[in-house]
Every structure is written in structure tokens, then in C-alpha cells.
């Protein structure tokens, strides 16, 4: 629980500063640098123990150094690695790395002629970063954990060549993913049509996509698995 809270605070701090060009290092870059530095420290301490206490590895000082280099410091490295992986996995480039399953969607995001919601949001910079993550991950820690689990499933299917078209959502898309950005927006709340159906929108009785869409280009079934294996 403590680690989750620390990770959440660190993630929020990084997100608050990553939207514009920065001077100095970002939170993810700092975590990566610290992770490498601590890894070098572990190797150095292990080398020191082997060189100095080779004849007596059970010496009290050697045991303390073993504890630090093999237990305590690796725990910090694990935390930093988890933080870096968590942040990097949210980025567009990570989602685009699953070829050719995601190619139609990632290409559409940058197509200036596209009229899909994803492309409009991306090219108008309505979503500054982590575009896929922002729209496809639910609220709170439950949404984050579910996204991580789904991501592992996606990686397994890709590397085993079992991913196929048409891909499908695990569950119907919820309006809350739209409303968490649009609620409070003058452009959104200023339209009478939205005010008149707000109850239906917040309860998911009427999907946003009934009026707005399509969210992505139409899928074409390939008839064969697509992934790492050919």
C-alpha cells in the first residue's frame, strides 16, 4: 500500500511536469539514472566483499554488506524499475510497438484526413500525452491494475502469435472515460443537448458514441493470427 501511494504521487508529479519542454531531467529519466547507479553500486559492493572477505564470507561486516547489496538496494531498484516501466507503458510508442495488430490505429492517429475521434483528439492536442492510455484506462487504482493485467495479456498474445483481427474491447466502453475530461469544459457543458441528456450519459444509458464517432477506423478481419510469429 505504501509503495502504491508513493508510486501514485511520483506519477502525478511526473505527469504535471511532462506536458511541455523541460529544463533538466524528468521524473522517469531521474528514476532510470538512479536505477543504473544503484545497480553499479550493487556490483561494486559484491566485488568488494569477494575481494576483501574471500576467506571469511561469514564475517559480520561481509554479512551486512550482503544484506545491503542483495536485499535492500535491489528493493529500491525494483521500485524504480516498476515506476519507469509503468510510465513508459502509458506512452503511444509502447502501444504502437505491437505490429501489425495496432498499425491501423496508430497510423490513423497521425492521418490528417482522418475524422475519427482518436485522430481528432490527437492532432488537435486535446490529449497532450499518453493518448491511448488516457482514453482506455478506467478510474482509480482498479482501472490501473486492470490495464496492467490486460497489457500482459496483450504482450502474451503478440509474442505467441495468437493476436488476431478484429480485436475487441474486454467490456463496453464507458462514458466515464470521456466525461472525466469533458465534464467542466465550457464547450461541452455549453451545449443544450448535453445538458438535456446528462443523466443518461453519466449512467451509461446512452453511450457518447451514439452521437460521436467513429472512435477508430473500421477493422478488417485478417483471417489469420497476427503477432510476432509469422
Task: Report what the structure shows.
By secondary structure, the protein is mainly α. The chain folds into 2 domains: 2-13 and 26-88; 92-210, no CATH class. The protein is built from 12 helices and no strands. It has helices spanning 2-17, 27-52, 60-88, 92-96, 103-109, 117-123, 131-136, 140-159, 176-182, 186-189, 192-196, 198-202. The model is unreliable at 1-21 and 223-230 (pLDDT under 50).
Helix content: 55-70%
Global Rg: 23 Å
| Strand portion | under 5%
The shape, in one word, is elongated
Computed structural class: mainly alpha
Count of spatially separate domains: 2
Straight-line N-to-C gap: 42 Å
Low-confidence stretches: 1-21, 223-230
> Largest sheet, if any?
none
Spell out the blueprint of helices and strands.
Blueprint: H1 2-17, H2 27-52, H3 60-88, H4 92-96, H5 103-109, H6 117-123, H7 131-136, H8 140-159, H9 176-182, H10 186-189, H11 192-196, H12 198-202
Helix pairs in contact: 2-3
Throw out a few tags for this protein.
12 helices, single chain, 2 domains
Would you kindly provide a brief summary of this structure?
The chain is mainly α. The chain has helices spanning 2-17, 27-52, 60-88, 92-96, 103-109, 117-123, 131-136, 140-159, 176-182, 186-189, 192-196, 198-202. Helix 2 (27-52) packs antiparallel against helix 3.
Amino acid at each position: 500500500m505504501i509503495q502504491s501511494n508513493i508510486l501514485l504521487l511520483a506519477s502525478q508529479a511526473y505527469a504535471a511536469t511532462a506536458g511541455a519542454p523541460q529544463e533538466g531531467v524528468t521524473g522517469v529519466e531521474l528514476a532510470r539514472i538512479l536505477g543504473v547507479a544503484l545497480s553499479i553500486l550493487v556490483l561494486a559492493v559484491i566485488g568488494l566483499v569477494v575481494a576483501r572477505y574471500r576467506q571469511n564470507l561469514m564475517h559480520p561486516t561481509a554479512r551486512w554488506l550482503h544484506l545491503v547489496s542483495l536485499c535492500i538496494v535491489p528493493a529500491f531498484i525494483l521500485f524504480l524499475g516498476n515506476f519507469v516501466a509503468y510510465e513508459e507503458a502509458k506512452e503511444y510508442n509502447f502501444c504502437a510497438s505491437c505490429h501489425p495488430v495496432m498499425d491501423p490505429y496508430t497510423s490513423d492517429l497521425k492521418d490528417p484526413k482522418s475524422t475519427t475521434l482518436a485522430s481528432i483528439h490527437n492532432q488537435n492536442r486535446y490529449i497532450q500525452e499518453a493518448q491511448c492510455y488516457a482514453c482506455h484506462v478506467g478510474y482509480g487504482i482498479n482501472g490501473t491494475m486492470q490495464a496492467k493485467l490486460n497489457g500482459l495479456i496483450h504482450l502474451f498474445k503478440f509474442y505467441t502469435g495468437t493476436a488476431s483481427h478484429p480485436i475487441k474491447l474486454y467490456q463496453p466502453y464507458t462514458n466515464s472515460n470521456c466525461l472525466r475530461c469533458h465534464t467542466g469544459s465550457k464547450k461541452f457543458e455549453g451545449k443544450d443537448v448535453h445538458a438535456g441528456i446528462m443523466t443518461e450519459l453519466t449512467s451509461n444509458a446512452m453511450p457518447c458514441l451514439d452521437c460521436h464517432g467513429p472512435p477508430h477506423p473500421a477493422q478488417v478481419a485478417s483471417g489469420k493470427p497476427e503477432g510476432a510469429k509469422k
